[in-house]
Design a protein that fits this description.
CATH architecture of the largest domain: 3-Layer(aba) Sandwich
Shape: globular
Distance between the termini: 54 Å
Order of helices and strands: EHEHEHEHEHEHEHEHHHEEEHHHHHH
CATH class of the largest domain: Alpha Beta
Oligomer: single chain
Mean pLDDT: 96
Number of helices: 16
CATH topology of the largest domain: Rossmann fold
Low-confidence stretches: none
Bound molecules: nicotinamide-adenine-dinucleotide, magnesium ion
Structural class: alpha/beta
CATH superfamily of the largest domain: NAD(P)-binding Rossmann-like Domain
Strand content: 5-15%
Strand order of the largest sheet: 4-3-2-1-5-6-7
Helix content: 40-55%
């Protein structure tokens, strides 16, 4: 047990990962205290969280949201200081008193605050996979330079982290590792006829069979872009070449991923699909704590199934491997185009089956560039968003 309580900053506190994080934190008041919370606009939920966890700071996306939050907090007698905007997010991510930062903002908006936590040498609990996909080489260089501790929250990467040797050096061969087996549920449309995908609604796409998640990642799971982003994420986190990352469809989501060794051993991490397991693992690392998760009952589950992914049906997976192979700005372009396409789909401006073609065309049209620093990443992201919006506008078909 640590001598004093760990001081935690939760970016994206009102989202699916944020709420699960606070659930685990609330089970261990002797271990954790909440120093700061952030949310874009779900002000009432954030006000409740402030009243319960009494953070020193709360950050919201706009001055109007800050006014609203301030009023709610005064009514409840909560003394949390309210701040607004992107700079305030970077400020709470790098507070001297903070021990750990949960990076759970969705999408590219999470990159700067997550990087601020890395640059401040914090223990960074990384849920925001888009940050790593966009900025992989820049991000990992900063992790090393600042001695930050990066712990993956994504269930697959958390499983891989747990299944690698204790002192994994970042070199597969010298650690006797042959391959990473990245499991994927296949999402809600694994068996839907391809011809029906044009008519899929946002409600159907967000109804994941095994996980309850935010809307953006739910759509990514339905297109399998989520697995594509995770291939890129695994590449950067564990220094694994793409040809040594195999995606395996496993519809039950019980095995969260595996590591195959040179001697033929395969080490897997299993558990019920509940994000509180990887969250608790990272919060307490290297210790183990109760996460409130129902124990796994393998006899009730009965059997575990596996199949190969269909790259024809799920072109996003292929596009992600291609972007990773191209390197430079290509993963940032892939991510930005995906965010624009998913937003258009959720706004009912784009049919579900058009998402991959928007991304493919943006990858073709947006300029390729080397990525050496954060400015290069942000420039690639901005240019790709502009191109993707043009592609969407030219190709929209009412859903
Ligand atoms: P969510 O949509 O439920 O929550 C997102 C959070 O980010 C909210 O608190 C929201 O207020 C905040 N936010 C949104 N836009 C913002 C902006 N522009 N600026 C600042 N804050 C903003 O998302 P989620 O499902 O919790 O996912 C969060 C991240 O974790 C994503 O990167 C996702 O890929 C990753 N992740 C989620 C799960 C899961 O089970 N939900 C699993 C693995 C990885
Ligand atoms: Mg995942």
């Amino acid at each position: 047990m640590t001598a004093r309580r760990q001081r935690l900053v939760v970016l994206g506190a009102t989202g699916s990962i944020g709420v699960n994080t606070l659930d685990v934190v609330a089970r261990h008041p002797d271990r954790f205290e909440v120093l700061a919370l952030s949310a874009q606009n779900r002000v009432e939920r954030l006000a409740d969280q402030c009243a319960r966890f009494k953070p020193r700071f709360a950050v919201v996306g706009s001055d109007a949201a800050a006014d609203q939050l301030g009023k709610l907090l005064r009514q409840s007698g909560c003394e949390t200081t309210v701040l607004a905007g992107a700079e305030a997010l970077e400020r709470i991510s790098s507070l001297a008193e903070a021990d750990a930062v949960m990076a759970a903002i969705v999408g590219a908006a999470g990159l700067r605050p997550t990087l601020a936590a890395v640059r401040a040498g914090k223990k960074v609990l990384l849920a925001n996979k888009e940050a790593l996909v966009m900025a992989g080489p820049v991000f990992m260089k900063e992790v090393q330079k600042n001695d930050a501790i990066l712990l993956p929250i994504d269930s697959e990467h958390n499983a891989i982290y747990q299944s690698l040797p204790k002192n994994y050096s970042g070199d597969l061969s010298s650690n006797g590792v042959r391959r990473i087996l990245l499991t994927a549920s296949g999402g809600p449309f694994r068996q839907t006829p391809a011809s029906d995908l044009a008519h899929v609604t946002p409600e159907q796409a967000c109804a994941h069979p095994n996980w309850v998640m935010g809307r953006k990642i739910s759509v990514d799971s339905a297109t399998m872009m989520n697995k594509g982003l995770e291939v890129i994420e695994a590449h950067w986190l564990f220094n694994v070449p793409p040809e040594r990352i195999e995606v395996v469809i496993h519809p039950q989501s019980v095995i969260h991923s595996m590591v195959e060794y040179a001697d033929g051993s395969v080490i897997a991490q299993l558990g019920n699909p509940d994000m509180r397991t990887p969250i608790a693992y990272a919060l307490a690392y290297p210790e183990r704590i109760d996460a409130g998760v129902t124990p796994l009952d393998l006899c009730r589950i009965g059997s575990l199934n596996f199949e190969r992914p269909d790259f024809e049906r799920f072109p996003c997976l292929r596009l992600a491997y291609e972007a990773l192979a191209q390197g430079g700005s290509a993963p940032a372009v892939l991510n930005a185009a995906n965010e624009i396409a998913v937003e258009a789909f959720l706004d009912r401006k784009l049919a579900f089956d058009r998402i991959p073609s928007i991304i493919e065309q943006t990858l073709r049209n947006a300029p390729w560039a080397e990525v050496c620093n954060l400015d290069d990443v942000m420039a690639a992201d901005a240019a790709a968003r502009k191109t993707a919006r043009e592609v969407v506008d030219a190709r929209v078909r009412p859903a």
